[in-house]
């Protein structure tokens, strides 16, 4: 079973201590009632992952762990085979003792687009909502964050995160909890909150923005990344049954409308800092994610459209502050 005791000890000593009033009961309930059918077998695989202590970790330029002298071919193959059991790997990439986990998304490209625009993370307490495998969490640690908390209910992502953590030398500066944002109380305790690739999956996007705001300290910063469409503050796409083959896409506003939504929820200093079309180089099938990817979701005759005829994925990054 995943042991959250270390995380409880960490937050017992800081301004997140009031979370302990409800969090242990929530996670105990999760362990009793909500486990995926394969979760116990995934845990057994995690236990087989060798306890290598890296001689060098680089979280500033990627998620990279190395060992001197170099591991043997057999040791690398052991790591590769174990990590392959946790496929599909969507967010990354990771470079672990010479094993290159080439994930579906080049999440490092998104990180490079946003990092010049955000407030420094040095010494900060950070929340990453919908964090996936935790790739960006480790990059936040690499920028000097004191504590990074990720939340994502997908249990495979939790196992991927714990596997990477183990290979990074059991780093305790980042912790992933199998929760959704709606399960968090209003903590008002994080210096920075990231929500990337989540908003368009929410039936009530403004409620999501309020939930994010209620996790921030006064003066705290929100980094919001989401699908958008071209247009002014009056433009919003409400797809039919699917958008780019995804069923659970509800609202895709223009970046200007998203700015209005943030202001409507009481955020100030709202800025649109980046817009980028998702390319076939940024999201694609790999050895580590072999099912359908972006190329299968676009009109084969016109990559400016999805297979359903909607505008192809365009993503924006907005930064806002809680007053």
Automatic annotation (TrEMBL):
Annotated InterPro entries: CmoB, Mo5U34_MeTrfas-like, SAM-dependent_MTases_sf
CDD domains cross-referenced by the UniProt entry: AdoMet_MTases (cd02440)
A Pfam match: Methyltransf_9
Gene3D superfamilies named among the record's database cross-references: Vaccinia Virus protein VP39
EC number annotated for this UniProt entry: 2.5.1.-
Known catalytic reactions: carboxy-S-adenosyl-L-methionine + 5-hydroxyuridine(34) in tRNA = 5-carboxymethoxyuridine(34) in tRNA + S-adenosyl-L-homocysteine + H(+)
Binding-site residues, carboxy-S-adenosyl-L-methionine: 91, 105, 110, 130, 152-154, 181-182, 196, 200, 315
Keyword vocabulary terms for this entry: Transferase, tRNA processing
Coiled coil start-end: none
Top EC class of this enzyme: transferase
Gene Ontology MF terms in the entry: transferase activity
PANTHER family, A to Z: METHYLTRANSFERASE, TRNA U34 CARBOXYMETHYLTRANSFERASE
Similarity annotation: Belongs to the class I-like SAM-binding methyltransferase superfamily. CmoB family.
Subunit record text: Homotetramer.
HAMAP family in the record: tRNA_carboxymethyltr_CmoB
Main function: Catalyzes carboxymethyl transfer from carboxy-S-adenosyl-L-methionine (Cx-SAM) to 5-hydroxyuridine (ho5U) to form 5-carboxymethoxyuridine (cmo5U) at position 34 in tRNAs.
The protein, known as: tRNA U34 carboxymethyltransferase
Species this protein is from: Xenorhabdus santafensis
Phylogenetic classification of the source organism: Bacteria, Pseudomonadati, Pseudomonadota, Gammaproteobacteria, Enterobacterales
């Amino acid at each position: 079973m995943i042991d959250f005791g270390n995380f409880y000890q960490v937050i017992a000593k800081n301004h997140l201590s009031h979370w302990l009033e409800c969090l242990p009961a929530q996670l105990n309930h999760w362990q009793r009632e909500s486990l995926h059918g394969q979760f116990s077998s995934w845990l057994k695989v995690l236990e087989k992952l060798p306890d290598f202590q890296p001689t060098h970790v680089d979280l500033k330029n990627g998620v990279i762990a190395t060992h001197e002298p170099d591991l043997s071919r057999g040791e690398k193959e052991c790591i590769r085979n174990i990590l392959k059991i946790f496929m599909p790997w969507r967010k990354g990439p990771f470079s672990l003792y010479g094993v290159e986990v080439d994930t579906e998304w080049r999440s490092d490209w998104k990180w490079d687009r946003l990092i010049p625009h955000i407030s420094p993370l040095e010494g900060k307490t950070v929340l990453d909502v919908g964090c996936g495998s935790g790739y960006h969490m480790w990059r936040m640690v690499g920028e000097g964050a004191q504590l990074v908390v990720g939340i994502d209910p997908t249990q495979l992502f939790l196992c991927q995160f714990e596997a990477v953590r183990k290979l990074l030398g059991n780093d305790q500066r980042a912790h992933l909890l199998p929760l959704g944002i709606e399960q968090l109380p209003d903590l008002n305790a994080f210096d920075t909150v990231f929500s990337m690739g989540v908003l368009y999956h929410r039936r009530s996007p403004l409620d999501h923005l309020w939930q994010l705001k209620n996790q921030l300290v006064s003066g705290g910063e929100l980094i919001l990344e989401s699908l958008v469409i071209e247009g002014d503050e009056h433009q919003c796409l409400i797809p039919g049954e699917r958008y780019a083959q995804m069923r659970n896409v509800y609202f895709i506003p223009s970046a200007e409308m998203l700015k209005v939504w943030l202001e409507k929820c009481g955020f100030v200093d709202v800025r649109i800092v980046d817009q980028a079309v998702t390319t076939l180089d940024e999201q694609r099938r790999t050895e580590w994610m072999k099912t359908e990817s972006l190329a299968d979701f676009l009109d084969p005759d016109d990559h400016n459209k999805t297979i359903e005829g909607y505008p192809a994925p365009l993503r924006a990054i907005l930064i806002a502050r809680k007053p």
